[in-house]
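pasting input
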Amino acid sequence: MLDLFNDEAPWTEPLAEGALIIRRLARDRAESLLAAINEIAAGNPFEHRITPGGHRMSVAMTNCGDLGWTSNARGYQYSDREPASGKTWPPMPEHFRHLAIAAAEQAGFPRFNPDACLINRYEPGAKLTLHQDKDEKDFHQPIVSVSLGLPAVFLFGGFERGDATQRVLLEHGDVVVWGGPSRLRFHGILPVKPGIHPLAGAFRYNLTFRRVR
Ligand SMILES: O=C(O)CCC(=O)C(=O)O
Ligand SMILES: [Fe+2]
């Protein structure tokens, strides 16, 4: 169907050295991405994990790929299965992998080979406090993050928690890549505002692709 509001080609906005926003890169594939997320969640449901500090995360999570990120009272970890059910994660769909590799390449990381995809689901009010992605063994490869559904404000900071942050509105189909000198920058998501997205309903979804091992 011809969509008069959906005819813009992706464009890029640099965030920092090694960090790039590729606006709308995933938009024309969003329906199949969301369908695959639903399929993954049918077998490995979204869960609100407990942090090592004992807090229930407002973001609900599942994973696909060889490894998945989880958290419990003992700490953060990557594991090949869902801890409570013992179920392995479903394979990373090829179209997920292709999108992540193409985005990384466009951002200057031509050899991205993700083995983990964390799938975050934000309901209105859900947020992710400032953190570094540092549970991976390999910091040479970037993080590729794909936003779908409701918009949210992404905070992109420095290398200390208290450093100043940039605030960037991430919208449906936007992809952010950070690696190289920006790989360990703090980042987070402000509470998602209520809304209804035509494809994703009352949620924001985010896929983050990582190389763990
Ligand atoms: O939801 C986002 O845009 C960021 C997710 C994130 O930082 C993470 O999963 O580690
Ligand atoms: Fe993160």
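fyi Residues 30-43 form the longest helix (14 residues).
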